[in-house]
User: Fold these one by one.
Assistant:
Number 1:
Amino acid sequence: MDLFFTRVSGRIASFAGQPVTFIVAFLLIIIWGGFGPVSHYSDTWQLIVNTSTTIITFLMVFLIQNSQNRDAAAMQAKLDELIRAVDKARGTFIAIEHLTDKQIQEIRTALEKDCHETPDKYEGKEATVQTSVDRLLARY
């Protein structure tokens, strides 16, 4: 069942993210709107779009969440493997995604503090970051 749901949800999420899907949905709304005057803007006319969009949205939330969860888990596994494989990386960071938001924020704060207190250890990364950020902002 898991493999089937993974395949179906992946395909539907991929299809839903395509420009052609947006165009089809947009055209369906235009067609629905065109029938408004013909049906004298009846309750049934309104109910059709309200019900169909509610059902589609409800189901898509679960499919997209499944797809995002799978992508995040795969990314986390890849990052954990990189941490494990790099000699100077701290293995204690593996699986920190299971910590609370507060604990993760404390780790981030400590890392940033460590970076500022021992700049020679990081060989000017802060200056490099600032230069990169300035260059990025200058484009916009």
Number 2:
Amino acid sequence: MAQVVRRSVKPPLDYGPELVDQVRFVIAIAWFPLILTSFALSFGPAGIQASGFLGLFGALDRLGAAYNLIVVREFAPLVTAIVIAGVAGTAITADLGARVTREETSALDVLGVDPIKALVVPRLLALVFVSILFNIFALWAGLLGAVVVVAQNDAALGPFFASFFANATALELGASFVKVAVYGIVIATVCCYQGMNASGGPEGVGRAVNRAVVIAFLCIGAIDYVFTQLLLATNPILSQTR
């Protein structure tokens, strides 16, 4: 990771075209799974069950407060990380692993081109940028799922949004983007490392992809727990219902 940071700022900064290509590639393969998953989780396990429970007490207007916790704090960053790791991360690991087994990285070394700067840096920056962008998509898709749940229960949207914005804070939104950026950095580091260290031909590339997915998902779970606990411990106001 330290090598990537140093080489990303060391002139010449000639990885721009590759960075743009990687951003376009990740967006193209991951935007639909992200939106579909965000909407499905927001509408299904979150929305239907929460609305059914709150409806028993005639407090469906409190659904907005629940969605602040469900979408902004948890689901949007988590879904973004899972989709990025499962769709884009695996593709990056396979791509880099194939280049290594075909000795393309060795050829770059012979030509005087730094493989880390040429291949790893643009992919890491692309995953971080797309993770932040996809968090916005996940937030909108999650809120769309909430709107469908409210409409399904023949309730007014006004009380829902009043409760949502009464409980939402800029701190929580900012923390959501920080968390998803950390996810992007960790996922890119794991997947690039596994790809650049693949060996054993096509079989080795497949094993590298499997390792990358498992390690990335374990890291996602650990980061989610630690980050959330630190956020709540340092900002007790987030635990208060408003």
Number 3:
Amino acid sequence: MPVRSAALATAAGAALLLLAAPAATADAGLLTESVTVDPVGRVAADGSVTLSGTYRCTGASGPVYVSSTASQGDSSVRAGIGGTRATCDGLEHPWVNTGTPDAVVLKPGAAHVEATLMELRPTGIVPLPSFHARHGQDVTLAAG
């Protein structure tokens, strides 16, 4: 049991380090993986938020997802807005995430969105996150 606890602690620590690390930069000519955010998102009357963009990735050995968060005002308070399964075939694909934030109410107006292209790479007992791309952008949330 102590070995399992240590493995979980190591995996959690690695995930936190990866989340805190700045996104890797590459020569524009070598860039093969990316995620974008469309400049306009939607807020429905029921409070659900829809965000979208595109992604491109290659070389995944585990499941890959496009996740997104949005914030308004206080940038330290972010709302998770859904997740979409990604296909890593080197082609550009659209993504659309819809979700209703639990603790944050997002309203029409200016917001900041961050999209992350993340793989759950099989490594031993616990899959570890491997980040393919990340992009943050100011957007407008429109009613509708």
Number 4:
Amino acid sequence: MFQLHPQLDNDCFTLGRFELCRLLMMNDASYPWFILVPERSELREIHHLDEGDQQQLISESSALASAIETAFAAEKINVAALGNLVPQLHIHHIARYASDPSWPAPVWGKHPAKPYNDRLRDERIEQLLDQLQRPLYPVDC
């Protein structure tokens, strides 16, 4: 049975789920930063998914990246599946700008997370949801 890793649950807001992945937003207002987590148990790597799930992941990732690019006028989208600290397979999607606090370096470990206030969190979620070209379903708890 799928369970979201406690660190992801602690660091993120859950926005919903696509056919395969749970969609999260990192609680760091410095960047529009979203994470896809395939709802499959005990996975660490993309190649551990079966072929159909790999294709579905690429489809969902591409749709998310496109929505982020449009919603936030991103200059670059960083997509990464690192998993060095959180072993559960998860894929980061981060809108980057030459003016962001970590540019051009990776965002990890550069600056402490800047938690969202309620207004900005809700605005950022709405901006993304307005651009998604696929349905987002509620997460069954």
